[in-house]
Structures are given as structure tokens and as C-alpha cells.
Amino acid sequence: MIVKMKKMTLLCLLEYKREALNELRELGVVHVDATELKDSTDRKDIETMIVDLQKASGLLSSIKSSEEPDTEFIDFSGEEVCKKTLGFADEESRLKKSLEKLTLDHEQLQPWGDFSHELLSDLRGKGMNIYLCSENKSDFDKPDSPIVELKNSSDVTIQIVQENKLKIWFAVITSNDLDTETLPIDNIPSHISLKEAETRVAETTAKIAELDERFAKLAKQKKKLIAHGDQLQEKLEFLHNRDGMGEADVVAYIDGYVPDPDVEKLQSAAKEHGWGLLIRDPEDNENPPTYIKTPKWLDIAKPIFDFIGIAPGYREWDISACFLIFFTIFVSIIVGDAGYGCIFLVIAFFAKYKLKNNEQARLPINLFILMSITTIIWGFANGTFFAIPAENLPKWMHGLKWLTDPVTKNQHIQQICFIIAAVHLSFAHFWKAVLYINSKRAIGEIGWAMLIIGNYFTALNLIVYPDQPWPIPLLIVLYVGGLIFTLSCAVNWKNVGDIFNYPFGLIGTFVDLLSYIRLFAVGLSSYYIAKSFNDMGLMILGASQNTVIIALLVIPAVIVIFAGHIGNILLAILAVLVHGIRLNTLEFSNHMALQWLGHVYKPFCKKGKSE
Questions:
Q1: Helix (H) / strand (E) containing 150
Q2: In the predicted model, what is the mean pLDDT of the chain?
Q3: Is the dihedral of CA 456, 457, 460, 466 positive or negative?
Q4: Considering only CA atoms, which of 379, 345, 312 is closest in space to residue 585?
Q5: Which range scores top for mean pLDDT: 68-72, 175-179, 582-586?
Q6: Residue 302 lies in a domain
Q7: Which of 182, 216, 243 is a domain's end point?
Q8: Is 457 in the same domain as 491?
Q9: 525 vs 547: CA distance, rounded Å
């Protein structure tokens, strides 16, 4: 149920606006609507700190915590952990850049061995020029190469220092000054020797290793970052609302929304603290936040909406129950395998045990358990267990006879998909008919539901059972009645857009119903992918009749089958995200006239210490 909201404006003396905000936060019922923010240095500082904190959290999350006791950082505050993390990151970045440069220097010096740049300089000063060169081996002896000409010169000596299959490093020694433009001078760093490079590479590598050890110890303090982040977010919210308050002479004011059941609580606080308070109903052009209160059993639907990041508009409807029921059905059919469902259930119970004290994980895990159970039920109903042939399974795992008959199985599952479509889409219109019970629009919605049910029988005869006779009398009643009801009660004949869109609406009802066949298609493809990997594994085992070879082939066969099923599970999860969510948020929502333009009610409330 979407709770009704009241628009409120609170007034207080300008000098007491900070105290008023603190009291409002203690009250914890007002969703502040701060549309225009004044710039403030302290708010920008907090925003910068939050960005730094997010960066630090990302860095520590990627590091495995040390198993050694932490005595160095155990007393650090969250802010100190953040600063130290960023400092370590900057230091490590600097060291890695230095190591990269030193490694390059080492690679360039290595062919020449350890020599003194100063000695080369002294020799040049005494009239002996030494040019350190490198050349591709294939070019070294070419007739047009300048090296050949130098070889034939009486006052030039060429000394090969190092060579490999591709390249030659050599020194050109002469008392003359040669044109370096014609020589393949090697790119050698002149600021460091090979021995120095080796020493500094080892030292820098050791520093990075030491820093990584300290990083691993610091990672043990990740929880402090989370707590510090909550404090910063609370401060930012306070400053955001402070900067969003309007001012007029000696009065400060703030706008927001309060749930109707909490109006009295706000009024009592206003009397106690001497605030001015204006309470009214939201106007049509205003967009109040959406506050959904559901029965406790429906709380497990919340993780779905949180994950998708959508909320119905304030003037729309809460479809949590419908969304949860049908989403669970969609997941069951898309995954479709009792074996996968058992794996999910084991993982879910393990997570529930490991995270039993984590309140945030409770609802997602309960949702996962529910979907695992329904997947197992559907998998047993259609006799699918890791795509193992029925003849290789115990009789109690063969599934329902009418749903596993190889001749009619696909037809029955297709029919189930169309039944789900008809129920899901027509339910949207029957629901709206109840909402519009005192209006002729209710009759129009019943007309749309009749058209959808008629489309169900049409799809059934066109696709699933083309050889069966059409229920002509029933189709006439559904289509003629649906057309009369929609044309007379659902179309605004004064609105050109309504008239123009009506034919597309008729086509859309059939297209939307047909789109539910994707449940059958995705579920079937998942089954055949699993079966194909099973067959590949058996083919590997059947590659030889020799017992010893077969024993050796067991491991690769198991790897193929295991990898195939893991990949198939990942594809099934992706299909759930794409198709399972789409059928609720697009097809059903279109018929329910839901646009998901709402923003969630987030009251200004106290989470940590008061500002």
C-alpha cells in the first residue's frame, strides 16, 4: 500500500535553524524537499571526503586482509584509515612507476654488462671514441649497411658484445669522430649503471612488498571505513538540508513531505519547539515521494525493487504482491531444473547461516530461498534434474506424467506460459476495474481483459494446438464484447491521440501475450545446453574401450560437465534479470499503466551521532 503524503512547510527563527534541523532529524518522519541549494564550503569538503572514502573503500575491498595480528592500525579512526589508505595508494603508484622505469633501464643495460659511463667519457677525452650500437641481425651484414663500410676501415674496430637470434649489440671503437646519424646508436640510459639498476630494482620491489603487507594489515580495518562513511553521509544530509532552507528576514523555512499517519507527531513537535507549520495535500503538479508499507510476508519483495532501482509513482499503485508472485514463477520456469534449485537452496542456507547476524542480508537470502524452492518444485514437476534422461533417474523423479510426455510436453509448457500471460495481463485490467469501480473506465478495463483472454485462445489455436477446432462462439463473445466495452468506455473520442493509439493498443495486447512464450524458449534452451554438456562428457568417456584410459578420461569428462553446468547457471541468472524482470516492469506495467517514475520516501532521520 502506498501511504498518503502531506506537503509541509516548517518555519523557525533564522538563528535557531540548526537546532530545528537537529530536532527534525530526531523526529525522523519528514522527507525534505530541498530544491535550491546555497553553496557552502563545509558541504563541499564533506563531498570531497566522501569521494576519497569511496576510493579508499574500493582499494581496501580489493585487498585480502592479513591473517597476522594488526598492532599498527588497530587504534586508527575511520578518517585515519581513509587517509592512510590513500597515502599507501599514492606511494605504491609512485614506487610502481619507478620500478617500471628501473626495469626498462635494466633491460637496456643488460646486453652491455656492467660498465662505467665515466670511463667511456674519460676515454673520449683522451681521443678514443667508443660508440655503443645495436642492429637487427638480418641487417648487420647487408652490403648497404654503414657497418660494412666501417668494418673495411683500418682505423675502426667493431667489437661484438652480445647477440641473440634477432639482434646484435656491438661497440664501434675509433680515434676519429663518426657521424652518429649514420650509426645505429643503442638507447642506453646514461644516468645509471647495470649494477645500480639491479640494486634499485631489488630495493623498490622490496618496498612494494613491504607496502603490500601493510596494506593487508590496514584492510582489517575496513569496517571502520563503513562506519565513517555512514557518519559522513549523515553530515552531508544535514548540510544539504541546511543549505536547502529558505530565508526571509529573521525567518528560515524548509519544505518537505510527511506521511499522513505521522502528521500528528510533527504537529506535536512544532508546538513543543515553537515552529510555524503549514500542512496541506500535495497539488497535482507536485511529485511526493513514494512510501510503500507492505505486510511482513511481502518484505522479501523489497530486494527486487532495490536491485532494479525503481519505484511506482506516488499516484500509481503498489504491485509488490503481484510482482513477487509472478517473478517467482518466471524464475522457476526460466531456470527450470530441480538440480540447479537444490544447489541454490544449499547456497542460500549456507549464506543464511554465515550471515545470520547481518540484517541487510536477511531479506535477499529469504527471497533466494523462496525462488530456490519454487525452482525445485517446477523442476520435479517437469522431471528435469541436471538434464539427466528420465530413464537414468529414480521413478519418483520422473515428474508429472502429463508434463513429461515427450510427445505433448512442449505443448503443455507453452500452454502454461500462455495461461500465465493471460492471468498476469488480464489481472492488471481487472485490478484497475476495481480501482475505477465508480467510473465507466471500469467497464473499459473489463473490455481490455476480455480481449486479452480472447487472444489467449487465439494463440492457443494458432501456436500450441493448431489441429484443434477453434472455440468460435467464445471468441465472438470475448472479442465483440471487448471491442464494444473498450470503444465505448476506454477511448476518449475527443482526444485524437486516444483514437490514433487504439489500434496499436489492440495489436499490443496480442504481442504482449505472445512475449510470454519466452519463458518456454529460455527454459528449453537452458535444458538443451545442460544436456549438450552432459553428452559431451559422455562422449569423452566413450572415446576408448580401455579401462585404464577410461579412468584417465573421467577427470576431463567431469570438468566439461561441471564447467558446462556452471556456465548454464550463469546464463539462467542473466535470463532471469533480462526476461523475468522485463515481463513485470514492461508488459504487465504497460497494462497496469505504471510508469515507475516515483522516488522512494527517505525521511531525514538520525543514523549516528547528532550533528
A1: helix 146-151
A2: 91
A3: negative
A4: 312
A5: 582-586
A6: no
A7: 243
A8: yes
A9: 34
The amino acid occupying position 32 is V
pLDDT at 255 over 90: yes
Taking residues 410-419, report their average pLDDT. Answer: 95
Number of domains forming the structure of the chain? 3
Residues 72, 139, single domain; the answer is no
Cell of 475: 471468441
d(CA 55, CA 331): 36
Assess whether 91 and 127 both reside in one domain. no
Q: Could you please report the per-residue DSSP string of 32-68?
A: E---S----HHHHHHHHHHHHHHHHHHHHHTSPPPSS
* Three-class SS state of 393: coil
The sign of the dihedral angle between the CA atoms of 562, 564, 569, 573 is positive
Question: In angstroms, rounded to a whole number, what is the distance separating the alpha carbons of residues 470 and 454?
Answer: 11
**Can you tell me which residue has the cell 576510493?**
55
Bridge partners for 132 per DSSP: 171
Pair 491, 584 in one domain: yes
Looking at residue 150, what is its pLDDT? 82
- The CA radius of gyration of the chain, in Å to the nearest whole number, is 37
Of 150, 166, 192, which one is at a domain's C-terminal end?
A: 192
Asked if residue 526 is part of any domain, the answer here is yes
**Domain identity same for 223 and 183:** no
Tell me the three cell numbers of residue 599: 522516488
Give the whole-angstrom CA distance, residue 78 versus residue 81. Answer: 5
Of the chain, the percentage scoring pLDDT greater than 70 comes to 99
Q: Which of 184-193, 374-383, 556-565 has the lowest mean pLDDT?
A: 184-193
**Cell numbers at residue 446, please?**
473489463
Provide the b/e sequence for 445-468 (b: ≥16 CB within 10 Å).
bbbbbbbbbbbbbbbbbeebeeee
For the segment 457-488, what is each residue's pLDDT rounded down to a tens digit?
999 999 999 999 999 999 999 999 999 999 99
Assess if residue 268 is contained within a domain: no
Selection from 292, 290, 280 nearest residue 255 by Cα: 280
d(CA 543, CA 563): 20
Domain that holds residue 137: 115-192
pTM of the entire predicted model: 0.79
Q: Write down the residue that cell numbers 543464511 correspond to.
A: 352
Judge if 55 and 172 occupy the same domain.
Answer: no
Written as nine digits, the cell of 440 is 465507466
- The set of cell numbers assigned to 354 is 554465515
To which residue does cell 510427445 refer? 407
* One domain for residues 219 and 366: no
Do 133 and 227 fall into the same domain?
Answer: no
The identity of residue 314, as a single letter, is Y
Task: Please determine, for residue 165, whether its predicted confidence score (pLDDT) is greater than 90.
Answer: no
Residue 607 lies in a domain: no
